[in-house]
Amino acid sequence: MFGKKEGKLPDLKKFEDLYYAAEDARKNAYAPYSDFRVGAALLVKPNEDSVIPINKIYTGVNIENGSYGATLCAERVAFAKAISDGVLQYDLGENPFIAIAVSAGDEEALPCGICRQFMSEFAPEIVVITKAEGEIRIRNLKQLLPESFQLEKEEKTEETE
Q1: 41: left (phi over 0), alpha (psi -120 to 50) or beta
Q2: Which of the four CATH numbers 3.30.565.10, 3.40.140.10, 3.90.550.10, 1.10.443.10 does domain 7-144 have?
Q3: pTM higher than 0.90 for the full model?
Q4: Is 75 annotated as catalytic?
Q5: What is the mean pLDDT of each run of 10 residues along the chain (161 residues)?
Q6: Domains of the chain by residue range
Q7: What is the Cα–Cα distance from 101 to 99, expressed in whole angstroms?
Q8: Which of 25, 53, 65, 67 can bridge 39 by disulfide, Cβ–Cβ 3.0-4.6 Å?
């Protein structure tokens, strides 16, 4: 959970609203094998060129497949939607991904290991919101994946673009 060491306390109302967006997205999950429906809601900072400078929410759901390895988790679907919409193309001077909420109904749904590693590629400092025992829980990804695997990325220069 967030504490004094992590900096200022987060806006709980904003994070509760994000959690309820994830909960609402769950209805679109495709889970015919497990019947375990998961929804995610990813909060992203606005594009500098946006006419309306407000944060945007990308939702995702789990999409199961008879070939289990082809199954997609809700968190990765939300990130894929944001990235394919160009979120990484605008320069904010900082990471555009603010927080992700994950809902699986009555039980707490923490991101799986693959999703944690996937998210660390794009947002190692992202806030992760879940709900358990009727209480919104807030963590940062580094708490859930303290030593993520990272490859060095090449710096882009005008010659390599």
Answers
A1: beta
A2: 3.40.140.10
A3: no
A4: yes
A5: 47 87 98 97 80 80 95 97 84 79 94 95 94 94 88 65 54
A6: 7-144
A7: 7
A8: 25
